[in-house]
Amino acid sequence: MTELATTGTPAAPVRRPSASRGLVRTVLLLHRPALCAGAGLFAVLTVLLLWLHGPAMDAAATAWRQYDHCRESACTYDQDALLTYKSFSQYATIAVTLVPFLVAAWAGASLFGREMETGTARLSWTQSVSPARWLTVKLALPAALVTAGTSVLVLLHQRTWRRSQSRIDTAKGWADPLVFHANGPTTVAIALFGLAAGALAGLALRRSLGALVVSLMLTAGVRGAVALALPHLWSPVRTVTSLHHNGPRSLGLTVDEGLLTSDGGRLADPYCGSDLSTRCRELYAKLHATGFYSDSHPYSHYWPLQWVATGIVLALTALAVLTAFRLLARQVGAAPKGSRR
Questions:
Q1: Rounded distance, CA 208 to CA 198, Å?
Q2: Is the model more confident about 334 or about 64?
Q3: 243, 288 in Cβ contact below 8 A?
Q4: Per-residue burial over 119-138, b = 16 or more CB atoms within 10 Å of its CB, e = otherwise
Q5: Whole-prediction pTM value?
Q6: What is the DSSP letter of 245?
Q7: Where are the chain's structural domains?
Q8: pLDDT for 187-213, tens place per residue?
């Protein structure tokens, strides 16, 4: 018999399916209802913002022109168009700013809390996926979806708001607390923090309900802290006006305001009004007031304030992610050698 020489022929490499790709598919399948709900919400908000940017705003702007040109008490204008635009623009702004809280609730209750509670996470760790890789994929995939979806909503809202400023008399200004965040990257950053907070709460508590509550509380805490710190994240501009005015004149986002005295001191605004009133003139004389001052931010400070606040929130997000990885390492210890691919 003739022997076949096989010693010099290399064996064909065996391709094994990527554990990370399998985990991605598992995450998409396991959380398909939530992803479908999120996609539906995204679609509804997108259609609403496009409608507000187009037909709804055009109708409201036409109604405002009719109202502004009214010279008779009996003139007519489309009041329904004004009220419709006002109501739905408020709904859209509120909805965009609530996105981070929806992300936090989903991440805490379902993405991490429920999987830790039911043991689904530990089952994944036995399927050639290390705990660290599991957490990486569970954070990276939703983070990409959240960043993309929230960014689109923010850009659409900002575009709609910009167009309304010269056309709708009652449109909210840039310094409105909800409009400020709905127009900028702070909403995206807070949504990512909500995801990280959900991961941290889910790993720490291992209960879906408890993780939901804690992740929402953490996200609300960061959102509130940003609101309090925001006016102080950039140097304000001081505006000084005479006592003939009815009060301080703010340029947009107010940091501090009141009265200036003859010795250079500052006093709280007594809200009396102009010194053309005898009562106010006597009050200001007793206080030795020389004028009103207002430390505030003009619209030119909008983007510096946005980027500084966004950077702070992203730093907190990174800290939460790092804490989640360290917590996971303490909980599971070193992964088995055979599970590291």
A1: 10
A2: 64
A3: no
A4: eebeebbeebbbbebbbbbb
A5: 0.87
A6: S
A7: 39-66+78-231+303-331, 237-300
A8: 999 999 999 999 999 999 999 999 999
